[in-house]
Give the backbone structure.
Amino acid sequence: MVKSIGAPHDRIDGIPKVTGGATYAADVKLEGQLYAIAVQSTIAAGKIVTLESASAEATPGVVAVYSHLNARKALTWIHSDELLALSAEALGLSALPSGSSRPVGYLPLTSPEIYFAGQWIAVVVAESIEAARHGVGRIKVRYEVDAASVVMNDEKDDWIEPTFFFGADMQVQRGNAPNTRHGEVLVQETYATPMQLHQPMEPSATTASWDGDEVTLFDSTQGVLATREYVAQSLKVPTEKVRVISAYVGGGFGSKNQVWPHQALAAHMARALGRPVRLQLTRSDMALASGHRSYTEQDVRLVADRDGKIRLLQHVSRVPTSIQGGFFEPCGLNSLLLYGAETLDVRHRVTRKNIPTPTPFRAPGETPGSFALESALDELAHTLKVDPLELRRRNFPSRDSYHDRDWSSNHLLECYRLGAAAFNWPGRYVPPRSIREGSEMVGYGMATTAYPAPALPATVRLRLQVQGLAIVETSATDIGTGMYTILAQTVADELGLPVSQLEVRLGDSTFPNAPTAGRSKSTASVLPAARQACFSLREKLASIGAPHSPMPQSNESIFSLLERQAIPELVAEGTSAGMPREHNLSFYSFGAHFVEVRVDEELGRIRVSRVVSAFDCGRIINPKTATSQIKGGIVFGIGMALMEQGEFDPVYSRLINDNLADYHIPVNADIGDIDVIFIDKPDMRFNEFGARGLGEIGVPGTAAAITNALYSATGRRIRSLPATAAAIL
Amino acid sequence: MEPFEFVRAAGIQDVLVAIRRPGSRILAGGTSLVDLMKLGVETPSTVVDINALPLSMISVEGDALTIGALASNSDVAVHPAIEQHAPAVGQALLSGASGQIRNAATVGGNLLQRTRCTYFRARDWPCNKREPGSGCAAIDGINMGHAVLGTSRSCIAVHPSDLAVALLAVDAYVHLASVAGERRIAIGEFYCQPGDIPSRETVIGPDELITKVEIPITNLNATSSYLKLRGRASYEFASASVATAILRDGDIVIDAAVAVGGLGTVPWRNRTAEKLLIGKQLTQESILAFCDALFAPASATPSNAYKLALARGAIHRTLRGGAEW
């Protein structure tokens, strides 16, 4: 039988997804179901003085209105330290020394205080979503307005020096103090990245339905178990009384990675009203109530020898978090690992602003950080008049000197070589403004990308059924990544079955434990568990008279064996270990982007005409879904480079583009050729598949490669994203 | 969305009577009206559906091309008579919105679409256009996409239509009907600059219906073309756009029409400035002189001044030829 792993298998959930067969959280319609929509604050700081809901309550179809005035009593909606600890608000809080005024975390509908514009101040529940929206428009609020601040000010703001976050010290100063010797070259610039919104295709929704003392949530989340824990804590019920189902997720990118209040609020309202309730986030809520990537400012200073060897790498990031939350962008992560400078000065400073709490967004830290780092490398290359690729080769990190460890495997040089060859990279220094074709200036740019390869323990259950079906169950979610498909491929290979005889079931908290789908860890966490489950199943089969591996050796299928033994179903589980037990290694993936841009300077038109990116992500389980993942990441990078930008009104401190009409992401016509190359060398020191996750590594570096190409085309250095027509005219 | 009464009109007379009711709105393709109703910006008490009316013909009558008000943007864009007599119109339509929206959207609705100003499109911002007297949040707000021509202290919202810019360059007329009778208005006189009353956007009366658009068939109009500039390659309103038509005798310009979009509170054209091109060759110098005259009244903010540079680039490119749209 042909091996399934390594083959470009079509998504097994593709047909249901494009024919409407896949049920998303907001597709669920239960008998007697109610619909809820939130009301947002229009001020960014202050206090609610009066909130009048009588007119909304009198609106036809409206069943209830909840706010800080009644939620505590009517819904048992109460904030606590235990709840905060499980919430999106808490991520990063422990890294922020707070002194006397420790933030309590924000939970909507618990106080009249307003911390940011768009904060939920009430929820309207109605018989239809239209009636709920109608009621929302009839809530009257009077505020006491305080001065709000959404923009950083280096001198006036209070700055917090965070401690330890994302597995790294946020204040690294190592090696000798900078001492620019004669003949050394200096780059010293400030880079800025804008606020970015996740805006997955599927807006979050939670449908909660009670049956006695048990509640089921149809939810859109990257992690059903974390959601279950939070919701149970909020409801003050045992965890096993809460079931969370998230079989399909229409994209998350981090916005569904943490747990947000709406997920519990739906269950509280359903309990109070005795009917199922769907709490639906609007497009605007997706910008304000489920996190975002904050804007950043980053100072980078490089000191290098005349031959380009980097002696000092200084990277100081200024980033905001919310008034009550904890998350901040750890921009310096890649600066700790890449380029092996002997002196490192990588620090972060955080200040509190009247913004919604930021949250991880596809490669948090690495994405904005790599824009600054990889732009600075390009500036150094141009200062030295050295090929930017050659400069990176000269600074190749042969080991992880920050952690003082060897890499488990590192084929970055191979990525450089294969990517450059496929792109037809010039291979010598090309001064800016060298290539004109008709009315367009053409430029080439490149950047390195790197992303860690974590793994956590996971469990997969197999149910072999006599009628000829093998069911694979785990609580892991497929957020568009391909988990359904690669699990089927893995089990198909191990059991010697065609994929058509497998049914994969995901995203149900009653299934065995698996980690939240985030930080590119699902493949390395879940597939080894599936393999263990197959081993366990084979042992059971052997004990009842089936042949040993490889299966099947005899002509008898495993299903007819069950039939002969009169066993309707055989169940086995397997659990993975997470990270390798004993290791003194750094597990990272690497890659290199090569980009061609075309700029019509008279028309202010910038087009990314060609991208070639090469990646070392260990062994590739499914080249088709893997390529899609990476291409999606590169498209994110194109959006970040050229158009994405959340903007606050300077007077009202409100996000003005909380919708897809005003917040622009690339359309198909913006995307030229993208060629993805995988080195495909297994990292056998990481797991028995040799596979590392690749959900995020496509994003970091892409924006810098584009603006580096823009510099090559036009001689204009873009240090503040996005690079718009206004920036190049 | 507020509840409303829905009336399906069977004939033009039905419509003309129904729209005399205060608070009524005409529904054609619905791509603008329904969107604004969902946003709570439009709150009609009666919605009059006119889709059953026989107003979707595209035809050549004598020396004019007429387009029914209910003709879809998609149908008009690819009609051979449009391509032959007013190519800028087809190009403008194809540069707008998405395929799905163009299929639903109509020519009459396109001319009456409302501004894309963010502050207008959400009802809890101050906006003199939406709520007269409440102020303009855009003037001191995020106004990178706002107008630099025809602005007032009350409003700097940009007119969004691509079609109207092309129609302005080809000297089209808008035909209106009411119970009192019919009239025809040159497109150049159809739109009102905001002044102190930004809520008044056109000269169309509350009891009038657009029935058709008329484009004169001329040698000049047959040369027309449309160039639209914007951040992304598709599905975005213009940062700047230009509809041009030029007739030359050898190298010498004998007739010219240049309308710009994305810059004005209304589609913008200056016939006096165009006279600067007549009798001249199209050189860097003559085009520059034209642009200087055209943009002399411009008033930009620090963040939208780039639009003037974009528009100048677009005018230079189209007048010298060679810009693909």
